Amino acid sequence: MLTRSHIGCWTCKRRRRRCDNGRPACQNCRERGVDCEGYEVRLKWGAGIASRGRFTGADKPIQDSVPPRQKGRQRDLSRKGEKKEKKTGDSGQYTETTMRFRIDSSTAGSLLAAPRTKAEDEIFNQFMNEGINTLHSTTARDSMLHPRLPQLCQESMALYPICIAFQLALASTVTPQFCEYFDTALKTFRSELACSTTLSDATLTSGLLLCSIGLMHGLPWTMHLEGMHRILQSNGLDDVDRLSSPSFFRLHLLEVMGVMDLPCSAIGRQSPPIGIWRRYCQPVAPRYGIEPVSGLPRTLIDIFAGIGMETTEQTFWDWPGEPGSFLQCYLWEAHRLAGILALRRHKSHVLSPGNMVAWRQPAKCPADTTVLVARILASIDALRLASIERPLEDAYIVNSTMLPVFIAGLEIDVLCHKPEWQQMIRNCLGTSHQSEILLSLLEEIWQRADPSLSVHDLARQRGVEMGLI
Fold this sequence. Notes:
The chain is mostly helical. 54% of the residues lie in helices and 1% in strands. It has 22 helices and 2 strands.
């Protein structure tokens, strides 16, 4: 008779099965084909804030989040004040941090108990049938997310309202209904993230969808990437041995994080790139095939991830390409040339010879900037016309054209003398809310015609953090 395991992995403990304590995964989990959750001690956060131990006052199980300890008289006075508050029952004197987590916890509890309405189910089904396609540059139904999403919504209480908020975010205007669901989704996710020490696939999916909403509407989103990365680090993300056998779906989620974190994928970024693709995707994920969100070959994303490191203009120029459809070749050509322009705008791409990989030398490609802009727009225009002529060939590939079009539009010296190219960019960017914000940034840059004007500074002045995905 099997007895409950007290010293086994967390998966066997939950299933009440005997565990052989095998490392890195036990025999039971390997035979059943499930992810072994490991043996690490798990910390539980009561209301989002640790109340005892060396993480007292922290909102995450990492040393950087531990608040400074008060000294002497100040500590004694604060303790007396807390005791007095408990006796009087006064709930109006919470600090901002405490209030935030109490609100999040209460919201999460009410959402967990609240039944889903028929209207919400209709919006969710619309997301499953239509909205999810905007997340991919390949067919969404062939992706790993689509078949798993209903089950993931059962595992993460934040994921269902986030899916609804995402579908509402696709409207051309911001509606009060979207604001309501986005606020609820944000609070629920923050509460879930604060209580998470392992960051399940469901919670990670919730965070990536929340980032997608933010990058479409110019709302802060890179902070969510940073928060999820810290929890993954605390759970051993930097351990190469533990990274050697993650599930295919976890690898997919890490790749999506890596694409969002690329140096040139955000405008007005509030936090610096983490280097997720280079640090976690390149060493483990296969180096062949197409990444489904960006629609780009992984070998080309490797080069984009090296901007600011060993990647040079010649690296992009020498990329040999990969077999693909005509539409894919148009897309990849536009990205390859846009990478060269991105490097020319990147102040830190020139590295000392001692830091360069031996077979990569800092060299410029022979093409002039005007020629590069023309070839980018020509490739995108050919892609656009071919998509209209053959709409069933690759219906979602146009989702990935925003980055090369916007980077080409930043070349003020070229675009100010080419009004017809400006109109081409207007036609290629589309009519979504995300496109309207990006186009308004470009319009101001063209109007001011100041080469020293930074689009990132302009975005921060407007209080927006845009994505080019």
